[in-house]
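Purpose: get a first structural picture of the assembly so the mutagenesis plan has something to point at.
Setup: two entries, given in the order below. No constraints added.
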Amino acid sequence: MISVQQIHKKFGKLEVLKDFNLEFKSGKSYALMGPNGSGKTTLIKIILGMVIPNAGDILVKGKSIKGSYSYRSDIGYMPQIGRYPDNIKIGQLFSMMQDMRPEIKKYDMALATEFGLMDLLDKPMHTLSGGTRQKVSASLAFMFCPDILILDEPTAGLDPIAVEILKNKIIQEREKGKLILITSHILSELDELTNHAIYIHEGKVFFNDTTESLKDITGESKFTTAIARLMEWSLKKKQIKTELSHV
Amino acid sequence: MFKLLKYALYDIVKSRFALLYTLFMVLVAISIYQVSEDMSKVSLSLLNIMLMIVPLISAIFATTHFFNNLEFTELMLAQPVKRRDVFLSQILAVMFVLSLAIVIGFGVPMILWGADSSVLILLGIGIGLSVVFAGLAFLASVMTRDKAKAIGISLSFWIYFSLVYDGFVLYLIYSLADYPLEKPTLALVFLNPVDLGRIIMLMQLDISALMGYTGAFFQDFFGSAKGILLSSAVMFIWMILPVSAAMRVFKRKDF
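Result (structure tokens, whole complex):
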């Protein structure tokens, strides 16, 4: 459903993504992993059209996103840090976002209700705690029943109860056959929520396969240790490179 | 587009700045109207204050507004709306509020104490300068990621057009005094929106006689239909150019 083709992105001299290719298919849930600064958020922002790549193209549902904007109504996005205008109230924010998508009439308010946001509708955004802001971001991502869900560190800053609610919601949506893309550093959570692992290292795809084959290849039975093994390998690869460069 | 503009305007009106700026303009206009009865003296004083204050406030306000609303802009960019519309809604809201402050601020005293055509032209120049400097400020904002740097660039635009440029023109005229300079000066005036506004206004008041031969030449030029058309066209270009340049950069910008 999303096809990332030969994406190349530089910030100044720093090459964040190099010749990056990936396919995301509907009905699967992907765990996007990698060390800090490996280009996960940049990739997501490129898919959303917030960052414009130097080269390459992205197809969403078979259509190029270049110069297009309507494809974004198929994507529910939960940012890593939800930043909202200060003066706006939660209720106004919800109705504003609904206003942006006039073609969608049915709203999924389940998450907002479970998070207890419906009682806070007249609270301005700047009075909210970081966790409540995350709840607002999550509710917005799921509100329009999009076919694609992109969640950038969804549980960071949430309390355990909220994390449970959000996880259940993600599993529910996964069962409906939606494409789900999650980045996180909490591996146990990714193990629960996703069935496909993508590991990015220094702007390149280091591993891209199902969770089962990840366990097979690394010879580990647990997801977390398998990922740890993967990280070791990626670091070793780098060491070998530097050793060679000394020759 | 209109939905975005609605929310942008709602947000800008809620910040207290718009109200304070309007109040300030009203106070300035009222105090000047109190000082003199003569309409042309009033418009001249208003002009002098406006040529200093309006570009400065427009530049600073537009820059701070852009950076204060960066969250809103980022939020909108992840929604199914055009980048162009996100940009235009922000800048149009700023221009609208700045122009409204001038219209209300200078307009209310005019309704109270009367006005002539020169004051109406003054309003037009005020709006024009607000648009020009808001555009320049947005251009400075989209070119940099740092708020302080952007404010610095906007301020240097103001310093350049309000102070440095005049010094440069004076120096040029002084050192080339032996040559006929009417046409070059006219061209130089067109290269600075503040000077352009000042000259258009001065030609409306009968003080061009004080400016010697160049004044007479200007009077002749800006008094003619061709001159009026040309000068408003140049002002219009000044209003459009920074905005479209800023929009081009915005469309390629990473958030």
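Chain A has one domain: 2-210.
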